[in-house]
Amino acid sequence: MKKSGFDFNGIAMKKKMIILLSAFAAVCLDARQFGNFEIEGADLSLGLIPLRFTYFDGNWNVKFFSDCAAHAVGFPKAEGEKSYETEASVNIGGENAGTLDEKFFFETPNVCRFEARFKPSAGTKYGEISYSFNFPIKNSALRLDGNSINLWDSANLQKTFRAGKVSVETERGIAEFSGNLEVLVQDERRFNSQNFSLRFKPRDSSGVLEWDMKIFFEKVGGVAVPLAGSSDMGIPGLPAGRIKLGGIDFDFSRPAGAGLVVRGGMEKKLAAGGGGKHVYIIGAFDAKKTFSEGDCAEIGASYADGKIRTARVPCESFGALRNPADSGKPNAVWTSKIGAKTYNLFAAAADLGIPNPESITIKNLSKSDWKIAAISLCPLPVPAERLAGAFVAQSEEYAPFEPARSVLKGSALDFSGLLDAPAGKYGFAFAKGGEIFFEKRPDIPARFYGSNLCFQANYPDRENADRLADDFAATGYNILRLHHYDDLLIDKSSPDLLSFDAEKLDRLDYLVAAMKKRGIYVTTDLFVSRKLAADSVEPEFGWNGDMNATKAAFFVSPKAADNFRAFSKKLLEHVNPYTGLAWKDDPAVVSVSLVNENTIFGAYESLRPYFDGLFREWLAKNSIAADEKNFDFLRKRFLSDISRKFFAEQKAFLRSLGVRAMLTDQNFWDGYPVALLRKNYDIADSHMYFGHPHFIERPWQLPAKVKTESAISEYGGCIELSASQIAGKPFSITEWNYVNNNDHAAEGAFLMGAYGALHKWDMLCRFAYSHGAIDFSKHAGPIGHFDTNSNPVAALSDRAGALFFLRGDVGASKFSIPSLLPEDYLLRSEKLESRSPLLKRIGLYAATEIEFNPTPAGFKIPANAPFAVAAERAVVEQNKFDRPVLVDSAEFLPELQKLTAGKIDIENEVYESETSEMVLDKKRGTWRLVTPRSEAFISPEGGAFHGNFADIKNSRGWSCVLLASIDGKPLKDSSRILILHLSDVKNANMRFDDSEMTVLRDYGHLPLLARRAESLLTFADARAGWRLYALNHDGSRKCEVEMARKGGRACVKLSTVSGESVVFAYELARQ
Q1: What is the C-alpha separation between 654 and 1039, in angstroms, rounded?
Q2: What are the residues whose beta carbons fall under 8 Å from the beta carbon of 973, sequence distance 6 or more?
Q3: Where are the beta strands (DSSP E) in 1003-1042?
Q4: Alpha carbon 429 to chain centroid, angstroms
Q5: What percent of the chain has pLDDT over 90?
Q6: Which runs of E-coded beta strand occur in 499-623?
Q7: Cα–Cα distance between 13 and 634 in angstroms, integer?
Q8: Which one, 284, 463, 653, 1056, has least CB within 10 Å?
Q9: Which CATH number applies to 31-217: 1.10.3720.10, 3.30.750.200, 2.70.98.10, 3.40.50.1820?
Q10: Separation CA 535–CA 565 (nearest Å)
Q11: pTM: predicted TM-score of the whole model, two decimal places
Q12: Is 964 within 8 Å of 212 (Cβ atoms)?
């Protein structure tokens, strides 16, 4: 039998070869801290700005390490906090482009010696290989050998320099690169980025590219000075806790509203205990007017050697605590407006000249009280204005409000009329022709729109279960996904961890029955995060009990698979006393996924050594030789075989129990290899998030990097999942979200509902309604990243999604653009771009779906498709098509404009649906929808929309606007119309590390704050005989809003903040 010829122990055969890891492993490696530095994968982060391997191919397409490299076996490896080393192969376009070695030696917490070597593969053509460091222009400075480069005045700069030292100062700290450096300095503004880039070039040593430099990085940091003798300053709503402003650490950890009060003409001495020479003070003078000139304070510092230093603070460095005019000062750190009263805090800085004082003396030179909230000593000079813009507080821009916990029955916000109760009345759901139908209604397609419950939220008491079901119905949800329910369901005292907690099971049963009664169906996974008993997996698998290791074990461990089946049987054969049916016999259970997010191409990593052994056996059994070119595809073929076998076995088992719900699996990732697995399921399922937070220091703990851009700037965000839809197969997305705290998060439900309808998707479940215990007698709490029960704007936006998708306000595409995927795709090593920009754009025009054929030859394009996309070039080469077929690659983008009759405008980035109902303008950041029953507009400030029923102009701030018929008639015939005007919601004193709000440091607290947005709404006629009402948050009418009438048209100014009220919804009613 022919051997594979591949060395799994990393020993060279003819030459050194690298065993590839999956892209999942490269992306998900935990970040490691080394003093002031952080390494994630192979990127060295200097205050969140990475120095990273950068590869430009022969066409100057750029790839970074995470895009194109995979670690070798045993790498990366670290020696405590002293060193970090990695070895990897670099793959470009499916070809091995070379091997990369990186070494980081950490000499001190702020000094790193960096060495790297890259050996290109023979014959590889590339444009440039370098290490890049991209930093923002704003608040940054660049020096080469001490000579400054004016970033703002260096437009279009692109020049290579030789230097011994390159220094970059940013809001994060000071970075210095030293050595014999050749660096390209480039202004990135020409590429629509507000950054400058440094690209450190290698020296060529006999064909091997080498880098060697020393890197110094000093964080801004700071040492907080304790404010001894603090007292109440009379400032309501002050922030609390340890807070980072402009990179400087401050401590507000005192009783609410307390701080240091230095009376006019007096002084106070504070123990410092070391720290930098730069003192930063957060405070204000208790005056109604700003001091105009002179110095208002003096800072004295005493040192261990007896030295004393003083520094004066000019009046212009501060502002008046209660002067509204000072709220706009550049160094205003925190501003709050409560009623008619304004409160300000400002940042001031002084240079003491010498670091590490033992004490500092604060002397007030004015006649007004100086109220100080925090003081810090920092080693680096930071302009005081950099400390501003980090808080969200009650102000002209943000107003407090208290949301309702329920919706008034029959109000304009009660969408329960969209449901058809009880769930299951038409029998079991089944798949046919790419849609879902019910047994007793086989000719009417069914759709599902809903949300997830997680952890304790699955186990409310009966009163709260009924109220929860009512709230789901009122939102327009007709599907519930039970998620992360399984571990809490287990009786932890049972030896095999397979017995159920009786009380929890009863609560879950009641919840399902309450949902079913209201017309709400159920979907779930048979394994999510349940812990298995210690003997549930054979010892030889190296299983450690971790959730991801358990997911991997299910594929290959007989004992683990038995455990999976035992739990599944126990749950599905259990008879719900409130429905009288076993779960398996309840038609309200629409679909069941085997294991949550277990896509095998990533899951196997948790048991990698065992899977590697199986892979060796598979190669030998099939007489296949693996090399660097085909290794990745061969492994995917091998893993695909295992996944298909697992699904087939579990499906047979579940069907033997009498389970009739549609079955699916592998609901994580997209792309062609995953699609080849999903073709075997009853329904294809996937997950997608736009702006998922990246937790910088520890998993699921702040601080977190958050996305601030609108999804419109990225082609609709989650809409790219349209490339995963399979012809003839229903498609569900059981987890999706446009994640808070993005100011544009309200757009998510508009876009998902509308494009989901265009693509004829079948199920959408937002993630999530709640992760915590449900108690309607209490406030839901501050908003977080995901949950809608505490975020009224998200809950309101889901009503738009329900109308577009569930009620069917948005029309389906009249045809689908097929993506032609050979079932033997993994037999060939050609690779194209993942998540191709071709399909991403087509998905904004029409439905897309994957068509399968056994081989590249013999494909037939569906009769109604005007053109098609080929998953690989072999499809085009081996067929003669009667219509255009584009290879799934960016090089064919220009052809799209021609094939769509201009509805896709590549140059101007405007994308109109083939139905003519939707237009996404990427450059302007706008989206509009015009249908008979609904019109909607998403736009930044200044955007304008012209509809058939009304026109809208956003005069202040970004917002989403919806006008929709309540009674289901066309807008022109309807007697009740709902108007939503949605902006954004934050928590009070939510704080960020930067003024752009890209790094969230603290979630803040109640009350919720609504961002002010204003729009002018002009109707197509005078609306004679109509009245407009602002709605309370429970949907009841708050007050009538007067409409102005001019030129035969009625108009009204919509404002999310009106007086002391927050208004997101209106009802337009015919009298």
Answers
A1: 56
A2: none
A3: 1005-1011, 1014-1019, 1026-1031, 1037-1041
A4: 32
A5: 71
A6: 521-527, 575-576, 581-582, 589-595
A7: 19
A8: 463
A9: 2.70.98.10
A10: 16
A11: 0.82
A12: no
Where residue 926 falls (left for φ over 0; alpha for ψ -120 to 50; beta otherwise) is: beta
CA contacts within 13 A on the Cβ side of 571: 24
Bridge partners (DSSP) of residue 500 are 490
Fold exhibited by the domain 223-389: Jelly Rolls (2.60.120)
Residue 147 main-chain phi, psi, to 5 deg: -95, 125
Number of C-beta neighbours around residue 752 at 10 A: 32
List C-alpha distances in Å: 491 to 497, 498, 526, 570, 582. Answer: 7, 7, 17, 13, 20
Is the per-residue pLDDT at 706 higher than 80?
yes
**Tokens 């009512």 sit on residue:** 470
How far apart, in whole angstroms, are the C-alpha atoms of residue 250 and residue 345?
14
Residue 448 pairs with which residues in a beta bridge?
763
Q: Which of 104-118, 287-301, 471-485 has the lowest mean pLDDT?
A: 287-301
Name every residue whose Cβ is closer than 8 Å to that of residue 793 and which is 6 or more positions away in sequence.
745, 746, 982, 983, 984, 985, 1010, 1064
Nearest to 817 by CA among 869, 855, 748: 869
- Tokens at 552, concatenated: 């991997």
Could you give the CA distance from residue 278 to residue 355 in angstroms, rounded to a whole number? 8
Domain map of the chain by residue range? Answer: 31-217, 223-389, 449-791, 816-908, 912-1070
Q: Which of 169, 369, 353 is nearest to 261 (CA)?
A: 369
Q: Tokens 């190669």 — which residue?
A: 619
Pair 663, 591: CB distance under 8 Å: yes
Least Cα distance to 494 among 528, 454, 537, 536 occurs for 536
Asked if 31-217 and 449-791 have one fold, the answer is: no
How many angstroms separate the CA atoms of 550 and 544, rounded?
8
In the block, residue with structure tokens 């439900």? 749
Closest to 939 measured CA to CA, from 950, 929, 954, 949: 954
Superfamily designation of domain 449-791:
Glycosidases (3.20.20.80)
Q: Which residue has the tokens 């508009």?
A: 750
Q: Which fold has domain 912-1070?
A: Chondroitinase Ac; Chain A, domain 3 (2.60.220)
Task: State both tokens at 984.
Answer: 């954004």
Q: What is the DSSP string of 432-483?
A: ETTEEEETTEEEEEE-EEEEEEEGGGG---HHHHHHHHHHHHHHT--EEEEE
**Confidence tier at 748 by pLDDT (50, 70, 90):** very high
Cβ atoms within 10 Å of 656's Cβ, excluding its own = 9
Sign of CA dihedral 320, 324, 330, 332: positive
Amino acid at 72: A
Instruction: Give the pLDDT mean for 220-230.
Output: 86
Pairing relation of β-strands 248-251 and 332-338?
unpaired
Q: 142, 196 in Cβ contact below 8 A?
A: yes
Query: Which DSSP state fits 612?
Result: H
Which residue in this structure is represented by tokens 């950068």? 54
Instruction: For residue 639, report the phi and psi dihedrals to the nearest 5 degrees.
Output: -65, -35
Measured between alpha carbons, how far is residue 573 from residues 424, 483, 502, 661, 733 in Å? 18, 19, 15, 13, 27
Residue 824 Ramachandran class (φ > 0 left, ψ -120 to 50 alpha, else beta)? alpha
The predicted-structure confidence for 283-296, as pLDDT tens digits, reads as follows 999 987 767 678 99
Residues 6 or more apart whose CB falls under 8 angstroms from that of 810 comprise 753, 754, 757, 758, 804, 915, 917, 918, 929, 931, 934
